[in-house]
Amino acid sequence: YPTWKRTLARQAREAQVKRFCRAQAIQRRLEEIEVTFRELEQQGIKLEKLLRDEHGSPADQQTRWTNQLLYLVQKKNSLMNEESDLMIAVQELKLEEQQSQLDQKLRSYMNRGETLKTPEEYKAEQEILKQLVEVVNKRNVLIHIQEEKRLSEL
């Protein structure tokens, strides 16, 4: 088993572990966002009730409650934006994993001698190459979506 094959296998495992750690971190953050959403929702409900029920309260108090409510809406929109970014990152991780697996399969077919390949193996190699190009194109679309989103935020 040549050294370069061991090196490639080790690098693939290391990349897989990194993707797994990123996926866990994203999942934790998504759960935190969900909890924060619920908290903001509860705070918003309380403020809305105060605004609706307290018609006799001073105008400055109602203004403060309205400002707090607007702040909660801004915070919620910010969290929704972050959640959207994280969902794109999840899709990107899935595509990275798929690309890695296809890359390994393709490499195994390409390492066989050209004269030793059967017609079925040629077809399989071409199919894997086609799938790999599709995955790369999907990743490219995600990158464009992220870039458009970043530019629109500026």
Radius of gyration, in Å, reads: 25 Å
Q: What do the pLDDT scores average to?
A: 91
Largest sheet: none
How many domains, as an integer?
A: 1
Total helices: the number is 3
Quickly give the structural class. Answer: mainly alpha
Q: Give the DSSP E fraction (strand runs of 2 or more residues).
A: under 5%
Report on this structure.
The chain is 90% helix and 0% strand. It is mainly alpha-helical and 154 residues long. It has one domain (3-153). The longest helix is centred in the middle third of the chain and has 53 residues, at 59-111. The relative contact order is 0.08.
Quickly describe the structure.
The chain has 154 residues and is mainly α. The chain has one domain (3-153).
How is the topology of this model organized?
Elements lengths: L2 H51 L5 H53 L7 H35 L1
Helix pairs in contact: 1-2, 2-3
Sum up the structure in keywords.
154 residues, mainly alpha, 3 helices, 0% strand, elongated
